[in-house]
Amino acid sequence: MKFFDFFKKKDESKISGLSDNLPTLLIFVAAYIIIKLLIVVGIISPFYETVVLKLCIDIILGLGLNLITGITGQFSLGHAGFMAIGAYTSALMTLRISSSPVMIILAVILGGVLSGFLGFLIGIPTLRLRGDYLAIATLGLGEIIKIVIQNVDQTILGGAAGLSSIPLYSSFEFCFICMVICYFVITNVLKSSFGRACISVREDEIASESMGVNVTKAKILAFIIGTFFAGVAGALYSGYVGVIQPKNFGFMKSIDILMIVVLGGLGNINGTIIAAFVLNIVSFALQDFAELRMVLYSLLLIAIMLIKSGETPFFVKLREMFSIENMKKKLNSRKAEE
Amino acid sequence: MEQFIQQIINGISIGSIYALIALGYTMVYGIINLINFAHGDILMVGGYIGFFCAYTLGIGFIPATLIAMVVCALLGVVIEKVAYRPLRNAPRITLLITAIGVSFLLEYAMMYFVGPDVKTYPSGFFGFGYISLGGLSISSDKLMVTFITLILMVALQFLISKTKIGKSMRAVSSDPDAAQLMGVSVDKAISFTFLIGSALAAVAGVMYGAMFTINPLSGMTPGLKAFIAAVFGGIGSIPGAIVGGVSLGLIETLVSGYLSSAYKDAVAFAILIIILIVKPSGLLGKNRKEKV
Q1: Contact A3 B91 (CB under 8 A)
Q2: Do A302 and B105 touch (CB under 8 A)?
Q3: By CB count within 10 A, which of A26, A289, B80, B158 is most buried?
Q4: Structure confidence at residue A12 (pLDDT)
């Protein structure tokens, strides 16, 4: 219970309407205009534009996993597997059928739907498991998806070499719009009665069941939405890199996504966005030192858990810990003890 | 028929390594309910220490393994003290994320220091060629693996059931609060569990490294397999770890021998999921009812 003490009350009680979403929408529009201007003027070069694309994709992945792990409390380590489903679906459709704009949109949606459907099929049996068992089962499922893609049919899915020369359809606008849609779906889900059911499942499964919450339904629905967006992100990813291989969607990728969610604070939507931003800058700065980056990531993971920041983003918690008021409080309590 | 027997022997030998690693998982899970993700990486560290001993110091299998056991046992105890102890009463998800962090830290710190390339033990370090047995020629390292595992299992069983520290470990795993009230040092019992588990992982690591190759990420796969074995046999149960490890090794070699080696990992994970859904307590595990 202590873990989620930081949960903010103000978001919960509101019934969402257009007026609630409007300010955030305006912020997104402003962000879009600024980034677009920077791209047009040339301050963000095409090279850095790819970083922005990756950021949008990471945010979608992070938000999806945050709904499953942060908000509903179901620990999934197989998110990258669902990303693979979306990536392969849309890559196959645009590569083999056609790469017209309508087809691309269809491909991205279908990637999400297939991934969500698989999430539904897999979710029914595995979501009965709890905590660490669920983590291992989803890890296994992610690996199974990877292994099956790698071995099933070399001529269609390309085996271990993967698929290449996928049309690069993921433009900045497209990714940004998908990200904004994802953001609004997740935030509005959080404000709905279903969102509150998810939070109650996270806090105490038995208590929420006895209060009449349909625990299984909440878990599976959260899992479907999360995996749907993982599929969408995967579809965008394949249109962003142009080459996809099964090994891109392994356990490490799942951990990367988990890292975003944990750094931003479990269950904190805005935190996820900031964390994705921070981590992309870090990994960009350390791209020549891959090992060092991973050492830093792992130390961060341990540190975040040890300071028990819970839903507060890591950086906010650190600021709180080292703020002047906190120091004073500590000093005072020490004096009082004496 | 001859091929079948060879497969069975391969399966038992790899299965005994899984069983050795699974013991560490099972004991730690039994005592603090944590899937110690870093356990597979302790195996990798043990493999590297064995490699260092064999290659740089030029010493034989037994002293190299003893050094690896001591270092890994210390490492395990330190990890428990620094990373897991402060979180003992935290939600499980917190502990699990910490364990993943520790696992990655070990992997990439190792990669940073020794480089990502694959290392092979010097030949003749482990085993002594082939033994012919009634028309079959059996690689001696496979027999040795099985034999060493058997000895360690018996020793462990003795330690847990007959000694005082074993008794305190059992007490803590069945009820930490009651054990503490009875004067058992819970911290000491948990530290000792990590010590034993890590030392066993070091032995497995040296043998695994000598039979195959090592690299900084090589602990992950056997670690996960051993976890599957622990769940298969019933997590928290020591005979279960042995049964689970050997059966997983057999299933895996038979699948890669007669079906396709590409799917052997997928089959192992599929077994895990089926077991978790059908009989989460495993083959020999006790059924624990969750109380409100």
Answers
A1: yes
A2: yes
A3: B80
A4: 45
Is the confidence metric ipTM above 0.85 for this complex?
A: no
The C-alpha of A134 sits at a distance from chain B's nearest C-alpha, in angstroms, of: 9
> Got the DSSP string for B50-101?
HHHIIIII---HHHHHHHHHHHHHHHHHHHIIIIIGGGTTS-HHHHHHHHHH
Compare all CA atoms of chain B with the CA of A294 and give the residue at the minimum distance. Answer: B108
Residues B15-26 have pLDDT tens digits of 999 999 999 888
As a whole-number percent, the residues of chain A with pLDDT over 70 amount to 91
B133, β-bridge pairs = B136
Closest alpha carbon within chain A to B96: A132
Q: What is the pLDDT of residues B154-194, one digit of tens each?
A: 999 899 889 999 999 989 988 888 999 999 999 999 999 99
Query: Exposed, middle or buried, A227 (CB in 10 Å: 0-12/13-18/19+)?
Result: buried
Question: In chain B, which residues have their Cβ closer than 8 Å to the Cβ of A301?
Answer: 97-98, 100-101, 104
Interface test with B, best of A122, A302, A309, A311 (most B CBs within 10 A): A302
pLDDT at A104 over 70: yes
Q: CB-based burial of residue A45 (10 Å sphere; 0-12 exposed, 13-18 middle, 19+ buried)?
A: exposed
